[in-house]
């Protein structure tokens, strides 16, 4: 199983959710079940995903609303799996941001093949960490031009702030301790907490928040360090 590839399965029917998770697992990926749009938002805010399987008829926050929120915040591919097979529903979902639409009842092998196809394409477009462009949520960092944009607007960072953000975005799930960051960015031995790292993180947070007040990008894990959220 490739534990680096995570698929969020948003489906309120317990049996169908279990079946979809089994398909994802058999394909070698890590599934996470969510049974409502609200629960799915909690998972979407918590980490980056490689694919979302999304039912449209959900309790609370419905599939159309969730799809719109995902499209605004992320480039993750979304496959709609729904009993609502009307042509207009499909067109609306695809225009809102869905990458594919599968009508229930579905063929297991077809779902598996489409999951593989979209994950391959997403990984190819995202590129490895060594590529010139890194993305996370609505953040884009270009190593070649040394530029950062948030939701399409450029954010001016100092060299240290840029280096910290680049490190976070290259390893979006990793928790970096102050020692990790100091020794990686300053290339010196970390001799203890002099708050240098904390000040730079705070300044970086403030600049990102000013560019997009609706999102938080850097999480503090007390006693452990920092990571993207």
Distance between the termini: 24 Å
Tell me roughly what share of residues is in helical segments.
Answer: 40-55%
Q: What structural category do the secondary elements indicate?
A: alpha/beta
Q: How many β-strand runs?
A: 11
Radius of gyration: 19 Å
Q: Poorly predicted ranges (pLDDT <50, ≥5 residues)?
A: none
Question: Please, how many helices?
Answer: 8
Largest sheet: 5 strands, parallel
Overall geometry comes to: elongated
SSE succession: EHEHEHEHEHEEEEHHHEE
For the largest sheet, list the strands in their spatial order: 2-1-3-4-5
The portion of residues forming beta strands comes to: 15-25%
Round the mean pLDDT to the nearest integer and report it. 87
Pfam family, one: Trans_reg_C
Keywords: DNA-binding, Phosphoprotein, Transcription, Transcription regulation, Two-component regulatory system
Organism: Paenibacillus ehimensis
Domain Response regulatory: 6-119
């Amino acid at each position: 199983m490739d534990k680096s590839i995570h698929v969020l399965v948003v489906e309120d029917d317990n049996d169908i959710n279990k079946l979809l998770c089994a398909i994802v697992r058999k394909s070698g990926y890590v599934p996470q079940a969510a049974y409502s749009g609200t629960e799915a938002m909690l998972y979407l805010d918590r980490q980056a995903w490689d694919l979302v399987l999304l039912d449209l008829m959900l309790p609370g926050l419905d599939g159309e609303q969730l799809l719109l929120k995902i499209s605004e915040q992320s480039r993750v591919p979304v496959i709609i799996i729904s009993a609502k097979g009307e042509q207009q529903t499909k067109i609306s979902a695809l225009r809102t941001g869905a990458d594919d639409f599968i009508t229930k009842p579905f063929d297991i092998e077809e779902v598996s093949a489409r999951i593989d196809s979209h994950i391959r394409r997403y990984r190819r477009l995202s590129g490895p960490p060594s590529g010139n462009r890194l993305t996370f949520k609505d953040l884009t960092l270009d190593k070649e031009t040394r530029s950062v944009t948030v939701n399409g607007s450029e954010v001016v960072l100092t060299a240290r702030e840029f280096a910290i953000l680049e490190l976070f975005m290259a390893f979006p799930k990793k928790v970096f301790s102050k020692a990790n960051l100091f020794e990686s960015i300053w290339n010196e031995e970390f001799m203890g907490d002099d708050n240098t790292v904390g000040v730079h993180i705070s300044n970086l947070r403030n600049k990102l928040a000013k560019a997009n007040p609706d999102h938080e990008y850097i999480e503090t894990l007390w006693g452990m360090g920092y990571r993207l959220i």
